[in-house]
Each structure stands twice: as structure tokens, then as C-alpha cells.
Design a protein that fits this description.
The structure is a single chain. This protein is an alpha/beta fold and about 425 residues long. It has 2 domains: about 150 residues, Aspartate Aminotransferase, domain 1; about 260 residues, 3-Layer(aba) Sandwich (Aspartate Aminotransferase, domain 2). It contains 14 helices and 16 strands. A 7-stranded mixed β-sheet has the order 4-12-11-10-7-5-6, with helices on both faces. A 4-stranded mixed β-sheet has the order 1-2-3-15. A 3-stranded antiparallel β-sheet has the order 13-14-16, covered by helices on one side. Helix 7 packs parallel to helix 8 and helix 12 runs parallel beside helix 14. The longest helix has 20 residues. The structure holds pyridoxal-5'-phosphate. The site of pyridoxal-5'-phosphate has 14 residues, from helix 5.
Length: about 425
């Protein structure tokens, strides 16, 4: 292990990690394209795209250059009362891409969800309807780790230790057929007068279990919200920027949300930035002679110029080549490659959509770290959790590299299954 690792490791607290039993993290010294170079000289392919963000690959020259250039002139400035070009250009670009007029920048996906929830609650309060104060959210949903975001994530998920501190909202199951849709419709009608907004990860619920639902269900939920004066919040932090195939997952369902959260791939995964986009109508709900009707939020590093410059460069890369095609190619390869795992003992499901492949175990493996270590030994970084073994590579991954990720997945899961 390098000297810096040994010096720092006793002081590091890792995310989502039982520090008493977890193995050491892998020291990474550099990265390029889809590959990470480890301190011991090994190169491994990243099958997770740095928690689903590194869509154009690591160290993309155009993004690195944009970061470098921006850092030469203005690396940061406060955003309350001072303006800078990268943020203003990016806001116009995002408004054009999404069709939502107003952009509120922040520094992480969780914060962008907090902002979306605050927008929704205050929108109704400003209209003299403070009773509309609850949020509809879904089983298996995950919207981040801050308190508002946890309170609208699945209640049986990662955050049960904090139950007493999170507000209870309305958790529903995503409908799967006409009967559950009828039930859901009745339920939403019954709670509409208390509900400010519905929040959903469109088409794919990520960290809460990698569950998929259809564009039709998404469109039906959207129209229920319209019928009942409930704001529709699409959390596209994971799905946005072509992960599910289209630029935004909502486009596949042909719907326009009232509020959209984006993060992760917004900067091509190179640096932290998130945004909450709101419709002209939501924005208008904050205009008033009363200063208390203003949106009370303002992170220190909101709209950081370096991050905005990276995001602009990323938008240009998306415009310059066909990412729908990249996602479609990955989808085909994942479908064919993962299919043989379907009949194995211990496998509950294999599912693929866009550039997302999921192998679901019937029960969570007891030693998930051993599975991760087996992947690394074979030259691939994958990070299965709970019952999910997922593949979400950079969207630019080459066919040969993706095949390696698939082959390693199949080998490791087949070995595991044979030991059951
Ligand atoms: C759908 C979704 N929402 C919110 C978040 C939180 O984003 P961040 O980790 O940037 O706070 C995530 C992160 O995984 C996510 O997948």
C-alpha cells in the first residue's frame, strides 16, 4: 500500500461501510476512459461508472480542458447577487434540454432533492394551501441521504436507523397491473388535498433495489398528479443523460414533470454539481411582494464555475454524438450476455434496460465483499449490494471492455451459485 494510504486510512470513515469488518478500499492513482489504475500497477475496468456518473469515461480531454480553463479565470464566486458566464450559459442549456424554465443549482443530488421538496411545499403554502404538505413517494425509492431525501426514500431501505428523525409521508407501491393501478388511483384521490407533490425515479428505481417500471405507468402517474393538483417531481439524478436510453427517462413516457432533479452525469461525472429545474408555473408561485414567499435555500458552492464549465463541456459531448445509440448497443450486449444467468440456482431475476443490467439474487449473499474481490481479481470493478448485482458502465464503453465486464459477472455469479 502507498505511504499516503497508510497515513490516511486510520482517519477515513467510508460511506455505507461497517468499518469494523470492511476490507481496505482499493487505492486508485489515475483513471482514463473506462479504466482505473491501482497503486500496485493493475488496471481494472469500471463497470459502475463511478456510481453511475462517469458517462463519457474518466479524464475526458474536453471536460478536463474546460475545468482547466475555467480554473484559470474564476474558480469560485458566491451566487447570491453575483453572476458568471458558465452558470448562465448552463442554465439556458438545461432549460432548453428539459423544457423547464428555471434552474436552481446545488452541489449534490441529495441537495437538489431537498430543494425540489422545498419548492413543492412552499409553492402550495404561497398559494394559501398549507394543508398540502405531504409527499407521495414509492417503495424501493431512493432519493439521497439528507433528511428530506431520506424521508421520501423507501422506509425499509438503508435509513431505518434515522426513522425517528424523518418525517412520515405517503409511501405507495408503484402499480404493476390494472388492479394495482386502480388501487393507486383511489389512494391518490383520497390524499390529494394533503399532498404537495409526488416524487419518483422515472423508469428505474436505483439504489433502492434497481426496479423497473413501464413508461405507461409513469405516464399514468403523471396524469393523476395533473388531475389532482399534485406537483410531479422527476428525480432524474440516476436516469438522466441517456442512462435508460433517451436523454431523460421522462421523454420515453412522453411526459413533462413540474420539477426535475439532475446530478451525477451532469458534469460527465467529473465534479460535483446538481440542479433542480422548475416549470414557469412553479417559479411564478414564488413571485410576491412578501419576502417570505422567496425560496429559502442557498448552498455556498451552488453553481460553482468549474463545475458549470465541466457540465457545459459534457452537454457539448452529448450533442456531438448519438448517446441513444451508445445506450442501445450496451443494452443489446447486456441482454445477450447476462441471459445465461437466468436459470441458475439463487438467481431471482435478470433484467436490462438501456445501459443498466441487473442480476437479482433470491437472497442477499452473506459475503458480498468476496464477490467484489473476485471481480477485482479478474480485472473489473463492480459493487454489488444487498440482492443486486448491477452493471452500469460508462456510456462510451467499448464492446470488448463491456464483454469483459459481462464475462467476469457471469463467472463470479456462476461460481457463487454453484457453492449454494
Ligand atoms: C435517484 C437518486 N437520487 C438522489 C441521489 C443522491 O445523489 P447524491 O449522492 O449526489 O447526493 C442518488 C444517488 O445515488 C440517486 O441515485
Amino acid at each position: 500500500m502507498p505511504e499516503w494510504f497508510q497515513a490516511g486510512a486510520p482517519h477515513i470513515w467510508l460511506p455505507y461501510t461497517q468499518m469494523q469488518t470492511a476490507p481496505d478500499a482499493l487505492p486508485v492513482v489515475s483513471a482514463e476512459g473506462c479504466r482505473l489504475r491501482l497503486a500496485d500497477g493493475r488496471e481494472i475496468i469500471d463497470g459502475t461508472a463511478a456510481w453511475w456518473s462517469m458517462c463519457h469515461g474518466y479524464q475526458h480531454p474536453a471536460i478536463v480542458q474546460a475545468i482547466h480553463e475555467q480554473s484559470q479565470t474564476l474558480s469560485h464566486v458566491m451566487f447570491a447577487g453575483l453572476a458568471h458566464e458558465s452558470a448562465y450559459r448552463l442554465a439556458a442549456e438545461l432549460a432548453q434540454l428539459t423544457g423547464l424554465e428555471r434552474v436552481f443549482f446545488s452541489d449534490s443530488g441529495s441537495t437538489s432533492v431537498e430543494v425540489a421538496l422545498k419548492m413543492a411545499l412552499q409553492y402550495w403554502r404561497n398559494q394559501g394551501k398549507p394543508r398540502k404538505s405531504k409527499i407521495i413517494h414509492f417503495t424501493h425509492g431512493y432519493h439521497g441521504d439528507t433528511f428530506g431525501a431520506m424521508s421520501v426514500s423507501s422506509r425499509d431501505g438503508f435509513h431505518t436507523a434515522y426513522d425517528s428523525l424523518t418525517t412520515r409521508h405517503f409511501q405507495l407501491d408503484i402499480p404493476e397491473d390494472e388492479y394495482s393501478m386502480a388501487e393507486c388511483t383511489d389512494m391518490i384521490a383520497g390524499i390529494a388535498d394533503k399532498t404537495a407533490a409526488l416524487i419518483i425515479e422515472p423508469l428505474v428505481q436505483g439504489a433502492g433495489g434497481m426496479k423497473f417500471h413501464s413508461p405507461d405507468v409513469l405516464a399514468a402517474l403523471r396524469s393523476l398528479c395533473r388531475d389532482h393538483d399534485i406537483l410531479f417531481i422527476a428525480d432524474e439524478i440516476m436516469t438522466g443523460f441517456y442512462r435508460t436510453g433517451t436523454r431523460f427517462a421522462c421523454e420515453e413516457a412522453g411526459i413533462m414533470p413540474d420539477i426535475i432533479c439532475v446530478g451525477k452525469a451532469l458534469t460527465g461525472g467529473h465534479i460535483g454539481l446538481a440542479a433542480t429545474l422548475a416549470s414557469a408555473d412553479v417559479f411564478a408561485g414564488f413571485l410576491s411582494d412578501d419576502s417570505q414567499h422567496a425560496l429559502m435555500h442557498g448552498p455556498t458552492f451552488m453553481a460553482n464555475p468549474i463545475a458549470c464549465a465541466a457540465a457545459l463541456a459534457s452537454c457539448q459531448l452529448f450533442a456531438a454524438s448519438d448517446y441513444t445509440e451508445h445506450a442501445a448497443r450496451i443494452e443489446t450486449q447486456l441482454r445477450e450476455g447476462l441471459n445465461p444467468l437466468r436459470p441458475l440456482p439463487g438467481i431471482a431475476d435478470v433484467r436490462v434496460t438501456g445501459a443498466i443490467g441487473v442480476v437479482e439474487f433470491a437472497n442477499a449473499p452473506t459475503d458480498i465483499f468476496a464477490l467484489r474481490a473476485e471481480c477485482v481479481k479478474r480485472g473489473v470493478w463492480l459493487r454489488p449490494f444487498g440482492t443486486c448485482f448491477y452493471l452500469m458502465p460508462p456510456l462510451v464503453i467499448e464492446q470488448g471492455e463491456l464483454q469483459r465486464v459481462i464475462d467476469v459477472t457471469c463467472e463470479v455469479i456462476t461460481d457463487w451459485s454453484q457453492r449454494l
